[in-house]
Amino acid sequence: MHQLLTIADYYGGGHMDWGGGWWIAMVIAMVLFWGLVAYWLVRAFGSRRDQRPGPGSSDALEILDCRLAEGEISPEEYRERRSLLARTAPDDPKQS
Which residue in 21, 46, 49, 52 is deepest, having the highest Cβ count within 10 Å? Predict the structure, then answer.
């Protein structure tokens, strides 16, 4: 058993010493790993700007624009609904 430990110590570099340069590779690997974890967390739990406004949204025109862009409604249906919203909407200083 003593001979086996001596051989392992000899071929292992002794005292877990990996030699020069390996620590640089390990630091780079660790930074890449934690960077990927952070990227995944931001993508999974970050802001949802690309989501369509839900039914609770007060901006009906934005919902209508999204539906047209996604192909859920035709351009004719879009124009009809937009004109209906323009007629029924209260005076809004933001709209031109």
Answer: 52
Which of 34, 89, 35 lies closest to 61 in space, CA to CA?
Answer: 89
Quote the distance between the C-alpha of residue 55 and its chain's center. 23
pTM: 0.36
* Long-range contacts of residues 21-30, Cβ cutoff 8 Å, at least 24 apart: none
Q: Specify the length of the chain in residues.
A: 96
Contacts of 10 (CB under 8 A, 6+ apart): none
pLDDT per residue as tens, the chain (96 positions) = 555 445 545 555 555 566 667 778 889 999 999 999 999 999 888 766 555 555 444 588 888 888 899 889 999 999 998 888 877 755 555 554
